[in-house]
Structure formats: C-alpha cells, structure tokens
Give the backbone structure.
Amino acid sequence: MRIATTPAMLRQELAGPRQRLVLVPTMGALHDGHLALVQRAREAAGPAGWVAVSIFVNPIQFDRPGDLANYPQPLTEDLEKCRAAGVDLVFCPDQTAMYLPDRSITVTESLLSRQLCGATRPGHFDGVCTVVIKLFNLFQADAAVFGEKDVQQLAIIRRMVRDLDLPVDIIAHPTIREHDGLAMSSRNVRLLPEHRADAPRIHRALEATRSLLRCGERNAAPFLAAARKHLEDSPFLRIDYLEMVDAETLEPIGRIQRPAVMATAVFYGEVRLIDHATLLP
Ligand code: PAF
C-alpha cells in the first residue's frame, strides 16, 4: 500500500499510466462503515483498478472547537485497517499540507445547506465542499464513494458535482449499523456507556413512524410528533433538530407526496449524532 502525506507526494504516486481510480474520502477513525465504503470502491474500481482512501480531519468543517479537539485520530490503526482491506493508496496529509496560512478561496453552498445540519452548523458544508473539491482535484478520481448516513452531505456533494461540472461519479452506500441499530460513526466511541446504551433509540424513533405510513398517514406532523416523543423519553439526549424534508431538495415539507427524509441530530453531552429514515409515499 502506498502512503502519501503531501499533495506533491500524492501527485508522484499518481503519475504515469494508471487504471480506474475510486476514492473514499474520510476523516479517519475508520470503522466497519468506512470499510464497507472501501469494499464498494473496490467493486467500482475492479480488481486491477486503484482504491484510494483519504484520511484528513478537516478543520474548516468543524463549528465547535471542542469537537475538533476531541475527534479521534488513530492513524496507525487506520493505516493497518486500510492495508488489511486491500486499499492501494492512502493520502493522510496534515493541516499545513492542505491549507496555506493565507488561503482565501472557499466553496459556498447556498441552498441545500439551509436546513438540517447546515442550519445549526454554520459554515460546515462550505468546509466539506472545499475539502472535497480539493481531494477531487488532487486525485482526479473516476468515482468517489460516500455514505448515505450523511444524507445532506451526499445531496450537497452531488449538487456541487452537477453545478461545477466535476468529472467524477458519486457512488452512494447505504448506512451501516451496529447490531442494535445505531448508525456507525467515528463519534460513537466518545459516548459514555449509558449514552451508548440509550443511543439505538435514535434509529428506533425514526423507524417506528413507518407504521403511520402503512396506515395511510401522509401529513408530516404526526410523524415528527411520534419520533420526538420517542427521543424525548430519553433521560440523556437533547434534540438539535428533527425535520421532515423532501429527499431531493431538502426543503421542509408538510405532507409526504414524494420521497421524503425524516432526519435528526441529537446531542449526548458534547457528542452529536445524526440519523435519518427515507419515507416513500
Ligand atoms: O464524511 C466525512 O467523513 C467528511 O465530511 C468528508 C467527506 C471526508 C470531508 O471531510
């Protein structure tokens, strides 16, 4: 497995003729969810193609300094996991390699980031778009794999690819869950034991509302009320947001007439977790 820690090293690794290249952008602290993305990348690259993983905790997408400071960064273990998963190339730069001190250009998304996480995390998606376009430029990958768990991030990256004519295919991979339903996240390891035991309720709260759909309910309000009640039964969590939005535009909706997404973000102490359910009318 090749490892590059600067853009110059990466360019060197990518010089010369090469096969199809599929990128999995990550912030490290790799878990089975990431490894599923790597496996998907291998399918898309083919046995002779290259699977690349970037590991970079992108400072400009963090809105809370404590979240950045506490973000797990087990690089040695991550590299071992990549090697075992058959990754061909890892790019793991430090901050100075990615951002010059007088950096002054940022990608701005001004529509899809108004709702959900974007509403409570100002600047977050501009930071995501900026680093993702840098990674796309550096790798010149044919395709990149993103998890559906970050449903808003996925929609915004697809929009950026469309609006800026970026020559990369976006491949979405379904959310990978722990055995008890909690969506896998690098932040899960920071949960206190009692919070970890409580956290599967997030998925249950969203999924339980499907029975309303089966009974013919289409108004968003009863879905949101039922999920809110389930979440608020927890003695530990605080709801950041709980919303029903259109699956494509991410605009809030009052009725489910097209594919919809009920999405939530909750805090357990300082740890913020997100999850969503896609509801089809
Ligand atoms: O989803 C993530 O891990 C990050 O937001 C990403 C896409 C790697 C950009 O830093």
Remarks:
- The mean pLDDT is 97.
- The pocket of pantoate is lined by residues 25-27, 58, 61, 128, 131-132, 150, 153 (CB under 6 Å).
